[in-house]
Amino acid sequence: MVKFAHLADCHLGGWRQEELQKLNFQSFQKIIERGIQEKIDFMLISGDLFDSAYPPIEILKDSFAEFKKLHDVKIPVYLIAGSHDFSASGKTFLDVLEKAGFCKNVENWELEEDGRIRLKPYMHGDIAIYGYPGRKSGMEIEDLKKVYFNEVNSFTILMVHTTIKDVVGTIPMESIEKQKLPLADYYAMGHIHQRYETHEANSHYVYPGPTFPNNFQELVDLNYGSFQLGEIIDGNLKTQNIQIPLKEVTYILLEIDDGLTATQKIISELDKFNLKDKIVLLRLKGILTQGKTGDIHFNEIEEFIRKKEAYVFLRNISSVQIKDICFETAYLPTEDVENIELRIMGEYSQKNPGDFTKYLPQLMTSLSMEKNEDEKSFVFEDRLLSELKNILKLSEVI
Ligand SMILES: [Mn+2]
Predict the structure, then answer these.
(1) Which of the residues 15, 25, 60, 361 has the least number of beta carbons within 10 Å of its own beta carbon?
(2) What's the gap in Å between 48 CA and the centre of ligand 1?
(3) 25: CA distance to ligand 1 center in Å?
């Protein structure tokens, strides 16, 4: 009998809130602990171990300590890079982990003259493990259509970090039909943060779910992190998904229509729940006929939640709309946006003479800066803030 654990999408270092970053890591720790208890023969990590190709030192330090625990009891770890820990330069901290002897990156392929990509196996006893990494923006999908291997083995595992068609539903998203992948017994997949398992003939296709939810919506949908435990007995596979409950999630969806009275409404709704030690998720929706979202006193709400001893509080107001916003414009619609902006700024400066107006054009340019794909919000905020500080020459003050 051979036993293994299949993890994916750990995103170590991924949360901004300290409390959630802590849970994210604890969940990973519990899974390592559970793997050791279960006496697994090996562990698979199907991409996105780290949230970025260059994780912070603190995260690396703690992660290495966990990998050392597996190393000490001689449980090998096989992994591939995901879309997050992939780097265009080809260098990632996964290499450091591998050089230290803590894991084996099983990505191993050769580009053939006809354009096909031949994968080469890593053998764990008589089990063949193949791997092909994820790329940014689903770029791996075209490659995966060309991937193949020749060997016939008693048991074959293919590790991929991609999206199969079965899990996308109606979302317009690049994906690959699972039948297009070379034939394997177990598809150890990552990338889609869902728990998903299906089998066809002798092939099992598994997304174990992230080892901890990675954002507001995932906390709502998944509550907890999870991984897959597999057992191969005489060539037959038995698997189960194991969830890691740490803190309970309380999700509150509330409809509001008045920004001015919303604070009180939210507080009395929250008061109905026992929030002690919970992850509290508040989503507001609705159309405001009075006031705006800025009128909601979130500091009061946060203070209230602190008194109720919640573990952490997250809010989401992206589905609140304001009724009848109408823009009055005296300018011809054919006029180009930049001209309109310049004219408005000019008129504003005339009416409000002062030093500040000279910063306006630069500020406008900076504020139209966009978040890069996969850039964390707090990294983006730092980038934006330092630019704004430079323009306003505030760097010495703050
Ligand atoms: Mn991921």
Answers:
(1) 361
(2) 5
(3) 15
Q: Is the pLDDT of residue 397 over 50?
A: no
For the 2-244 domain, the top CATH level (class) is alpha beta
Phi-psi region of 326 (alpha: psi -120 to 50; beta: other; left: phi over 0): beta
Q: What is the mean pLDDT of the chain?
A: 90
Report whether 27 contacts 63 (CB < 8 A). Answer: no
Q: How far apart are CA 126 and CA 115, in angstroms?
A: 29
**Residue 36 and residue 229: Cα distance in Å, rounded?**
12
* Pairing of the two strands 2-7 and 42-46: parallel
Output the CA 120–ligand 1 centroid distance in Å: 25
Length of the chain: 398
User: What is the sign of the dihedral through the CA atoms of 27, 29, 32 and 35?
Assistant: negative
Q: Compute the C-alpha angle 299/303/309, nearest 5°.
A: 145
User: CA end-to-end span of the chain, whole Å?
Assistant: 61
DSSP reduced 3-state for 228? strand
Centroid of ligand 1 to alpha carbon of 252 (angstroms): 26
Return the pLDDT at 328: 47
Q: CB atoms < 10 A from the CB of 176, how many? A: 20
